[in-house]
Amino acid sequence: MIHSTSRRALRVVGAATVAALAVTLASCSGGSSGSDGGDIELTFQWWGNDERAVLTEEAIDLFEQNNPGITVSTSFATIDSYIPKLATQIASNSAPDLFLIPMESVKEYAEKGATLDLAAYLGDEIEIDEISEATQKIGEVGGTTYGFTLGTATSAWIYNPTVWEDAGATEPSGDFSWDDLIDAGEKIRAATDGEVAALSDPGGYIAWFATWLNQQGKIGWTEDGALGFEASDLEAWFELMERLRESGATTDPETTTTIDQSMQNSGLARGASAGEFAAASLTGAYADTLGAENVALAPLPSDSDVLAISMAGTNVAAIAANSEHPDETATFLNFLINDPDAAEILGLTRGIPINQANYEALIPELDGADKAVADFVTTYQERFSEPDPLAPPGATTIPADFTLAYESIIFGQASIDDAAASLYEKFEATVQ
Amino acid sequence: MTVSTDTAIAIGIASDRPRRPPRRRTIGSVVWHVVCLALLAGLLYPVIWLLGSSFKPGTEILANASPIPWETTFDNYGVALRGVGPLSLWQLFANSMSISVLTVIGNVFSCALAAFAFARLKFRARGFLFGFMIMTIMLPMHVVLIPQFIIFHKLGMIGTILPLVLPKFLATEAFFVFLMMQFIRGIPRELDEAALIDGAGPFRTFWSIILPLMRPSLVTTTIFSFIWSWDDFFPQLIYLQDPNTYTLQLGLRLFVDQTSASSFGPMFAMSVLAILPVVIFFAVFQRYLVDGMATSGLKG
Amino acid sequence: MTTARGTAAAPAPRGGGAGGRRAAAPARRIGPRYQNAAWVFLSPWIMGAGLLTIGPMIASLILSFTDYDLFGAPTFIGFDNYARMFVEDERFWGAVTVTLNYVLVAVPLKLALALGVAMLLNRPRRAQGFYRSAFYAPSLLGGSVAVALVWRTLFTRDGTVDNTLSLFGLDLGGWISNPSMALYVLVTLAVWQFGAPMVIFLAGLKQVPAELYDAASVDGAGRWRTFWSVTWPLLSPVIFFNLVLEMIGAFQAFTSAYVVSGGRGGPVDSTLFYTLYLYDRAFTAFEMGYASAMAWFLLVVIGIITLLIFRSSQSWVHYAGDE
Lengths: 432, 300, 323
Prior knowledge:
The complex is a heterotrimer. Chain A is α+β, with helices and mostly antiparallel strands. Chain A has helices at residues 2-31, 50-66, 79-91, 106-111, 133-137, 161-167, 178-191, 206-215, 231-246, 253-258, 267-270, 283-290, 326-338, 340-346, 356-362, 368-380, 398-410, 416-430; strands spanning 40-47, 70-77, 98-101, 140-141, 144-145, 147-148, 152-153, 155-159, 275-279, 296-298, 312-313, 316-319. The N and C termini of chain A lie far apart (77 Å). Chain B has 2 domains: 22-78, no CATH class; 89-289, MetI-like (MetI-like fold, Orthogonal Bundle), CATH 1.10.3720.
């Protein structure tokens, strides 16, 4: 009697567990859509936000219409979530068919065999006639094409013309030196009771350092993966930044440290500064926050006549090395970069379309921030330079190291010489 | 005073100490309320700030430091209710809900079983297995993530909710096993022995004696399981592929991509909406914490 | 004490009574039925441990002796990771210091507040449900991005905290952008979310039989005496639990630092929690082997501290069910 009671209890427990597991299994199999026999399913993974998601879905619907028999399932996340997710997938050999790679990791992914050599598809599944040589090189490693950027962006100085006007400062243009910046900074500080700086401190960002290097005819990493600059260049950069900081032209350390590259913490968006260096593709976001009349674009200041602006890649779309459907994926990639209808749907959401013809078709229809960006490109196009070669593998951590080094300088924890020296050592480690 | 005068009367304890006059009791009660409310005011200020900011237009959020909007708007909630890109808010909500509910069921079941074994039953290698179980809490999850991912990949479970839910049915959350163990150890053994005399086996003892008495820990496990899985982000990120299966937390992060500004308001609004179910869940279940040993099942 | 248990247990009290069976039997009789039963009860846990936990844990231990960049296969490098960690890596020791500071400050504060408020709320009052939910509300927000933004805004220069402290003459400026104070932003965030240990304390307090409080008041015990003689001993298993788990949780704190500092642990690594650095090594620098070594070092440290707490528990933790 007692035994059967306890057995009954056990059976109840066991049954409940089994039932729960059954529910789990049922719910999971219900979630994934069954694939029709013969259909090829591609996976595409990218980073971005919800606006981009809507547009991307639209483009994909169009692709699926034009290519019956292929379905594309997408997955996306914000950039900081995207990277660990992709890394986990690659580590377990379950990478998506098509995925985006952040610029500083392109060489790493390619050289470690995670991406497919696209040579066989060039000119065939993937048309390259309307893509400029310089832009094609963005996805090349050691002369082999591994991917294409889905859009290029220039770096620019986004500033608030209203504040500059009110302070009576000369606005940035193609003819603006770093000293001009110091002058402007003084005026702006004066006009705003010392509250607003002319520029968010760019000293901790390797991107602006690289731009400044280019202005001197130097380069971060050369084609063959060697360093194109010396430790003294780092010192010179930090010293320039110190001059700007001490004159009040750039934000003070406490403010600087709260600024990162996100819009929510942007100095310009918060009104702590009257301008900052950023990718031109962010113009729309700034316009949304500050109002379109308070946003304008200019090249970065330069002490030479090299502006050092280029059409840089925003990402590289690559095909997984062990993709099961490389041909179809290549077709899909071609659609994303070359199809005129797709270009119309996606607009400038990922940067400037790399297919020249598509871009030119789009220009007349652009408005608002997109138009400002296009105008900027048109105005300064002749003075553009070629994009820098890709960073070598192992360079993924350099941007963070750069920021850390700069922070230790501005908070007085390290001298410029020491910080420059140990930072240079980190650079050297990437080319050994 | 932790003893209410009602209880004293009920037990019929004649006390030499004079009972507090009613006036004093009211003042004590008022003081208590004042203290609690003062603490709460400070504590909940950030929550109020969040709530207030969800009603501010996007341009004001970065500029206005006080919780009171200069200009109240419901737009943020409108955008949030429309969902994230191709995902509707209800979808995100339902996804989060199904995962969390299953998590709760799994945890309560499997952890109670394991806790009983560790707390009451003697078996070979009990000490060693207990040590191992505690060890599992001590290893940061990020380093076991890849091997676990590979295991689930080999089992073909990636892209489903199985990797998120199945471990809960296998007592992998040692926190709850340990929690329940501590509660079980607080239950006097005489009760087990009494049941033993009555001829009950371990299963009967567990079901009829221990389980009812460990209710506070079961309720606690329910509450925490739900909330923690609701707020969880990283495992969901790597195991869920189809955006239609994304949870609320994943959707929320998508609102704050680095490159767009205007989504702060909706992000705050969505955060508020995302917290509501959890608040309701807690408010509903916390009253079951009232029943403790003193009032449940022991007498008679 | 005996009185309470005597009235509680329905059948014959200890030391006599109907049927002499009990008197002769030892206090705890675990027969073979219980032995086998144990395995049944443990079967889900054993499956979980065997399938999902042991393998990955051993894998991570092995990985700690390798160089593994997630792309190719791991290559064995012996103790190099550990050597680099202890000898060459300054950021590692920085992270250790930051984390230790955090644990030593946040855990005691959090537990004290949790216990205090739990005792405050342990009275049968009207609206206690409301108060319980209200005090728990901060913990519900978890590590969300919204909370991070709120917290940052509160602690910037001229933010709410700065203004409030200025009223008391403390002109501390912005905490979040100050390398010597940024950590305390995270400490306050942790302590603010004391709801979880509070709820556990509440559950534990509910398990203290009311009769004991009555007995204490009959004996003429005051509030402090009641606390130390009745509440503390009976609550000690729960206090012990909270202490161990909060400590372990604090050592592994990640999300708050991640969202508040934007993943960087700044300014100047002043909020670089140990697990944040670990995550950075694993997923940004693709040094999974090194991250695994860091993880196992953390495990050893936590293990030793936990062991010490366990050992000490014999002197101050009292289990009613183990007598």
